[in-house]
Design goal:
Elements (H helix, E strand, L loop, with lengths): L26 E4 L3 E5 L5 E5 L13 E6 L3 E6 L5 E5 L11
Antiparallel strand pairs: 1-2, 2-3, 4-5, 5-6
C-alpha cells in the first residue's frame, strides 16, 4: 500500500487473493488465501477464498481485526465484543467468555 492508500497485490492467485483485491485500502490484513481491509466506518471488505465464509465478514463495524489462514476475527465497535468468521474446524472461533 502506498502513501495514498493505493493497494497492489502480487504472488499466487489461486483464489483471487491477488487479482480481486480492492484498489484502495486503509488497514490491510492478508493471509494465504484471503485478505480484508476496512473503511473509515470500520466495515470490512474481504476478497479471495470464500471457503466456509472466509471472505464474507459480518456486517458489523470493527475497531480492530485480524485474519488468519482460514478465519478472521474482529472487535465490534458497538460493544467491544469479539466476532469471528470463516472456518471453525478446530474451534478457534469460539472466544472464551
Amino acid at each position: 500500500m502506498d502513501t495514498r492508500g493505493q493497494l497492489t497485490c502480487w504472488g499466487r492467485d489461486d483464489y483471487g487473493q491477488s487479482s480481486n483485491a480492492p484498489t484502495t485500502a486503509r488497514n490491510v490484513q492478508i493471509d494465504w488465501s484471503f485478505g480484508c481491509t476496512d473503511n473509515a466506518s470500520g466495515n470490512l471488505t474481504c476478497w479471495g477464498s470464500d471457503l466456509e465464509g472466509r471472505s464474507t465478514p459480518p456486517a458489523d463495524a470493527f475497531s480492530d481485526y485480524d485474519v488468519n489462514y482460514a478465519y478472521g476475527c474482529g472487535v465490534r465497535r458497538s460493544d467491544g465484543g469479539l466476532t469471528c468468521w470463516g472456518t471453525d474446524a478446530t474451534r478457534v472461533r469460539e472466544a472464551p467468555t
